[in-house]
Amino acid sequence: MRALQVIELFAGTGADGRPVVERLQVKVNQDDSCQLVKSPAFVKGLASGDIIRLESADGGQAGSQFSLVKHSGNLCIRVYCRGDITALSDRLTPALEKLGAELDTETARLLVYSIHVSCGFAAIEAVLDQHTGEGEDSVWLYGNVYDPVDGRTPLNWWVDILKPQ
């Protein structure tokens, strides 16, 4: 097995017009594809375990573009908080872990979780809605469920994964 490597992916353009790049740990496969170790905080459309192929950066943009080779079946969940994220994490993380989630990243204002889609959207969303919202000064969103361009159209990649065998 190869050692973990760090890649830089283009995550979008900041308010100042400059490119935003996210550094992600990956396992590089024999065919040079990369498997994400954690769900990203900013790059849209990916989650832990997904396999991607790097493409060269366009027009000198910072960070690489990528193409998705295979979904892992994991959902990427991002929780943003203006208040005490430690208190929120102390309540939310154990509740999501009971469903099988893993906390991939915790910063002063952000939590990133990975959880398999087979846990069910309704169960996952019930836990998230119970622990986040206006009263908690926090909001959550999926990082890989909706079209990155319009932010509303479901990608439906999970349909085949959830089909009975």
Describe this entry's structure for a reader.
Strand 2 (19-28) and strand 3 (34-36) form a beta hairpin. The protein folds into 2 domains: 4-70, no CATH class; 74-142, RRM (RNA recognition motif) domain (Alpha-Beta Plaits, 2-Layer Sandwich). Helices cover 18% and strands 36% of the residues. It is α+β, with helices and mostly antiparallel strands and 165 residues long. The longest helix has 13 residues, at 85-97. The chain has helices at residues 85-97, 121-131, 158-162, and strands at residues 4-13, 19-28, 34-36, 51-55, 65-70, 74-81, 102-106, 110-116, 138-142. The chain has a 5-stranded antiparallel β-sheet with strand order 1-2-3-4-5, with no helix packed on it. A 4-stranded antiparallel β-sheet has the order 7-8-6-9, covered by helices on one side. Helix 1 (85-97) packs antiparallel against helix 2. It is built from 3 helices and 9 strands.
Q: Give the strand line-up of the largest sheet.
A: 1-2-3-4-5
Question: How many distinct helices?
Answer: 3
Secondary-structure element series = EEEEEEHEEHEH
Strand count, sense and barrel status of the largest sheet are:
5 strands, antiparallel
Number of strand segments = 9
Whole-number mean pLDDT: 93
**Uncertain segments:** none
The percentage of residues in β strands lies in 35-45%
Radius of gyration: 16 Å
Helix coverage percent = 10-25%
Structural class: alpha+beta
Give me the CATH architecture of the largest domain, please.
Answer: 2-Layer Sandwich
CATH H-tier superfamily of the largest domain: RRM (RNA recognition motif) domain
Task: Using the coordinates shown, work out and report the CATH topology of the largest domain.
Answer: Alpha-Beta Plaits
CATH class of the largest domain reads Alpha Beta
Quickly count the domains. Answer: 2
Q: How far apart are the first and last residues' alpha carbons, in Å?
A: 30 Å
The outline comes out as globular
